[in-house]
Design a protein that fits this description.
- The protein has one domain (6-231): BirA Bifunctional Protein, domain 2.
- It is 33% helix and 30% strand.
- It has seven helices and eleven strands.
- The strands form two sheets. The chain has an eight-stranded mixed sheet with strand order 7-8-9-10-6-2-1-11. A three-stranded mixed sheet has the order 4-3-5, with no helix packed on it.
- Helix 4 crosses helix 6 (198-213).
């Protein structure tokens, strides 16, 4: 749906390994910082991976290397805020590449606005989300359902948030999620008692992001974004 305000791109990478997806994000971030590439929202699902943020530690992984290998879970250290979390199929990861000056926020305000976006998204499915003062992210009752971990470089945002939609939550038992022992986690599937179509979640999310940040997001394929980057020498 067309919106007024800043025009940008909506890039859905689908199911893709975390590493290659972040290479795409880095290229777009560089282009935004260097030659005014439009604001871009990147969506992805990942094969099983634990990511450890800047304040995290491998000591929060409770499983042995052999068990991780047996389960096919990769471990990556990344440059977002926060500690360790799990990503896998059925979870949506959303990385808004915005400029804080365009949206009139500082980094802390932006982080909390992303929590509001998640709460609005859950509300669209009849689920009441809430915040916990000491922990970034969004909770349903006393269980965490959405994580937020951002990074900002010279005012340009990257990384973002994730929502457990139809995610198998078993791997969370192998870590201290966000560095917290036995932190309970939940999925939208569990809360609603049914499978939730990812495309439906994405479309609701697109509307909310456009309204929240006054964006008009045009859907492009990775090939089209690659062409746009190449035309700018990135």
């Amino acid at each position: 749906m067309e919106r007024g305000g800043q025009k940008g791109y909506w890039l859905d990478l689908g199911l893709i390994p975390y590493g290659p997806a972040f290479v795409v994000q880095e290229r777009i971030l560089k282009a935004r910082m260097g030659n005014g590439f439009p604001a871009t929202v990147i969506l992805q699902e990942n094969p099983s991976v634990f990511t450890i943020g800047r304040t995290g530690s491998r000591s929060n992984i409770l499983a042995s290397e052999d068990e991780l290998e047996r389960r096919g879970i990769q471990v990556m250290e990344v440059n977002r805020g926060g500690d360790i979390t799990y990503h896998g199929p059925g979870q949506i990861i959303v990385s808004p590449l915005l400029y804080l000056g365009d949206i009139g926020m500082n980094a802390n305000q932006y982080l909390h606005r992303l929590e509001d976006v998640l709460i609005d998204l859950l509300s669209a499915f009849g689920v009441k989300g809430n915040k916990k003062k000491a922990y970034p992210g969004v909770w349903w009752d006393e269980t965490k359902i959405g994580a937020v971990g951002i990074a900002v470089k010279h005012g340009y945002t990257f990384h973002g948030f994730s929502l457990n939609v139809n995610l198998d939550l078993t791997p969370f038992t192998l870590i201290n999620p966000c560095g917290v022992s036995r932190m309970p986690v939940k999925s939208l599937h569990q809360v609603l008692g049914r499978h939730v179509p990812l495309e439906e979640v994405k479309e609701r999310l697109r509307e909310i992001l456009m309204d929240t940040f006054s964006l008009s997001l045009q859907g492009l394929s990775l090939e089209e974004v690659e062409e746009a980057l190449a035309s700018r020498g990135t």
